[in-house]
Amino acid sequence: MNITHRPVLLAEAVTALISGPLITPSDASKKILIIDGTFGRGGHTQALLSELGANAQMISFDKDSEAIAAAEKIKDARLRVVHDSFANMDQYAEPASVDGILLDLGISSPQVDEAHRGFSFRKDGPLDMRMNTDHGLTVAQWLEQASQEEITHVIKTYGEERFASQIAKAIIARRQEGLAPKTTSQLANLVASVVRTREIGQDPATRTFQALRIFINRELEDLEMGLKAALTLLKPGARLAVISFHSLEDRIVKQFLQANAKLEVPRGLPLRDKDLPLSPLQIISRVKPSEVEVQENPRARSAIMRVAQKRLGVMA
């Protein structure tokens, strides 16, 4: 099957990174290092490379072995491909050495559209959902061993599903009958039998599948680690752009940026404004897809990109 992935906010992300004070695309001799935290199918990586000079370097990460296989087909000496989570990016670059970092969160179209990956409730396939299929439990394996309380917690916390306890109870009941869900259709049908009301246009299984995917891939933990690593790696003046697709991700990004753009100084200290230390980040923008992009790519409708810049004079 020929499956394509359309990167969200492509032009906006490229502009956000290269319009900062450190990067001058026309200067081909300048040594620039950019990190793309999720290669996906390379849309953002290749667009950024097309704007950068011959001495630029790009490190692109992905947990998904199929994405890595696609990345390795790109013949560009400036690109380094790393089969790892962006949570570990500080193991591949020195502190204060990176000119721009892009984190495109969520999953790619091939992951959703290929039934054997088990991400989609619309396509029947094995209940897997692992981004890195070389490691860890599949969703089916986890559901075989998790307690009702654990399943409830995951679906409620990561899916914000108000029927989480009923879904967990139904999964345990099926498991006790020797019929624990092993395929996406089996789980989707089980959830639909319990969730009788849902927002117009939303499948009953949407929140449950989101929750299990986030949990099994440690997506929120990786995001928190990746944001901390990015702050360490960015040069003063370098930019961080993060594209999120649901409220749990965006809340973490928003709170991280706000916390590092605000300096907490105890009240009563005899300090003038010019004596205050600098906060690490300056928030630059919040960008959403245009109506045209959403019409052309409905999967972009929930995307939000937040952009921040490491303040000049801040090294840590």
Largest sheet, order of strands side by side?
Answer: 3-2-1-4-5-7-6
Main pleated-sheet profile: 7 strands, mixed
Name the structural class: alpha/beta
What number of domains?
A: 2
Percent helix, as a range, is 25-40%
Q: How many β-strand runs? A: 7
CATH architecture type of the largest domain = 3-Layer(aba) Sandwich
Could you tell me the CATH topology label of the largest domain: Rossmann fold
**Shape descriptor:** elongated
| Average pLDDT score | 90
Q: Cα distance, first to last residue?
A: 47 Å
Low-confidence stretches: none
Count of runs of 4 or more consecutive helical residues? 12
Q: Can you identify the CATH class of the largest domain?
A: Alpha Beta
Q: C-alpha Rg, in Å?
A: 21 Å
The helix-strand sequence is: HEHEHEEHHHHHHHEHEHE
In terms of DSSP E residues, the strand content is 5-15%
Structure summary:
The protein has 316 residues and is of the alpha/beta class. Helices cover 38% and strands 15% of the residues. The chain has helices at residues 10-18, 43-51, 65-71, 109-113, 139-145, 148-159, 164-176, 184-194, 206-216, 219-233, 247-261, 291-296, and strands at residues 33-36, 57-62, 79-83, 98-104, 234-244, 281-287, 304-310.
